[in-house]
Amino acid sequence: MPYRDSQLADLVDLGARRGASYADARRVEREYEAVSVRDGEVESVTRSGDRGIGFRVLHHGAWGFAATDRTEDMSLRSVVDEAFARAEAAAGTRAAPVALAQVAPQRGEYRTTLLRDPFAVPLTDRIALLRSADANLKGPHAVSRRGSVAAYRTRKHLVTSEGTDVRQEIVESGAGLSVTAVKAGAKPAQRYDSRLVRQAGWEFIDYLDLPGRAARYRDDAEAMLDAPLAAERPTTLVFTPEFLALLVHESCGHPTEADRVLEHEIAFAGTTFMWPTDRGTLRYGSEHVSMTADATVPGGMGTFGWDDDGVPAMRTKLIDRGTFVGYLTSRETAAALDLPVAIGSARAEGWQHFPIVRMVNVSLDPGTQRYDALLRGVDDGLLLEAPASYSLDNKRQNFHFSTQSARVIRNGALEGYARGVSFQSLTPAFWGRCDGVADDWELHGFLSCAKGEPLQLMRVGHGAAHARFRDVPIEVRG
User: Fold this and answer.
1) Which of 32, 237, 258, 282 has the greatest number of beta carbons closer than 10 A?
2) What is the DSSP-derived secondary structure letter of residue 282?
3) Residue 347: enclosing H or E segment and its boundaries?
4) Which CATH superfamily is domain 2-226 in?
């Protein structure tokens, strides 16, 4: 590692000597392994990895970035030349120079806490687990079954001209299950989840109990084949944490990204409806709704020691008892909005990408009542268990979601299934209907949040508990 230390430091020193007001060098090494089983047979075994260095400079008030997967001196000097050339080209197009919010220099190491390294688990054990889960996905009408497990390792080392020198090793484990059931005269039913991921070792895969989960998914899919259509009317809805994790991601995480506020993302990802003048006044939801961005949550897919600006992991409120109060920021966007750095959210998918504002762990805060008490407050309603299709406008203000599985709630108890359920709403109207959040908070992970040009796929985390929403108009499609 001393060789790598000196390499990054030499790049940063060269950038400073050539006149950069700021420079950083970031080395990233990534490993990935996955096993997939389809209908009881091994479908694929995948192994991949890459490594490289990304180099940034602030010069003449503009960013310049370049990257390489080669480490000889000539390639690294070419990266410096390219970064400065891009900064000079960008300087002529900027309306104002880039400024960075102040952060103290950082030094240290961060490592994921592991009980069992997922890369060390024998391939035979992984396949045996997936075949056991596949056996439980079998049902009288199951026509397609899939299961997978995956492991991810990322090593990062960041050195900056301000004195930051931090190393990180992040390990993540994940699994996916899917079953499709088909019956003559009925609409096909699917039950699946590809968001079973966490920053953890193989112990998380054990915790998931894939065979037990597979049996539940099979039963849901089979039941949905014969389920009657729901009644199309305003309905009390209770959402599982799994469903709410996606709603939080789309309707709070994205519109609070500060680069969308500054319209950096307008050509690709869109803007927002949560503007700086709205902070502290915009009614986002009911008093039961608070949301927090937290890069320190154990096991979160958005957890780290430092972001790619070198900002240490922090937590901040985005929504406080229904009122919009905060943003996800990088050092650049915090300075542009004249905000202190309340949370660092500059993250790059890999060494070849420029860091942009990305979600950390953005979560719905837990409530104080038990889930069964929440259900007892429903005389006639639906429990929506998992999202299916969804769409949103480019401000994240108007959305439409459907569900894979809906359970009927009568007099506080679950009774059978209903199909065809979807709903559409404006974000503040939807969250304004929330009249209770349970205390059974749990964490979910997302593997591929898409943003940026060129496109970057980021892993992020979201926590939620069961929550109840009154009088939500639903649509029913057979």
Assistant:
1) 237
2) -
3) strand 346-347
4) PmbA/TldD superfamily (3.30.2290.10)
Q: Are 316 and 334 in contact (CB under 8 A)?
A: no
Interval 303-339: pLDDT, tens: 999 999 999 999 999 999 999 999 999 999 999 999 9
Measured CA to CA, the distance from residue 267 to residue 122 in angstroms comes to 46
CA-CA distance, 296 to 361, in Å (whole number)? 8
Distances (CA, A) of 14 to 6, 24, 77: 12, 11, 9
Residue ranges of the chain assigned to CATH 3.30.2290.10: 2-226
295: CB partners within 8 A, 6+ apart: 302, 303, 304, 307, 313, 314, 315, 343, 344, 345, 360, 361
Handedness of CA 429, 432, 433, 438 (dihedral sign): positive
Q: How many residues does the chain have?
A: 478
According to DSSP, residue 252 is labeled I
pTM: 0.95
Residue matched to tokens 């519109």: 255
How confident is the model over 139-184, as pLDDT tens digits? 999 999 999 999 999 999 999 999 999 999 999 999 999 999 999 9
> Is the distance from CB of 94 to CB of 61 less than 8 angstroms?
yes
User: Can you tell me the distance from the alpha carbon of 298 to that of 114, in angstroms, rounded to the nearest whole number?
Assistant: 11
Counting DSSP H helices and E strands in the chain, the numbers are: 10, 22
* CA angle at 76 for the pair 70 and 80, rounded to the nearest 5°: 140
CA distances from 351 to 55, 96, 420, 449 (A): 9, 27, 44, 17
Nearest CA-CA partner of 257 in 454, 249, 77: 249
Which residues are 197's β-sheet partners? Answer: 174
Picking from 340, 293, 351, the residue whose alpha carbon sits closest to that of residue 100 is 340
**HSE, side-chain direction, 13 A CA sphere, residue 209:** 5
Distance (Å) of CA 291 to CA 31, 48, 284, 462, 474: 32, 36, 10, 10, 25
Q: What is the pLDDT of residue 29?
A: 98
User: Are the beta carbons of 305 and 168 closer than 8 angstroms?
Assistant: yes
Phi and psi, residue 466, nearest 5°:
-60, 140
pLDDT range class, residue 1, cuts 50, 70, 90: very low
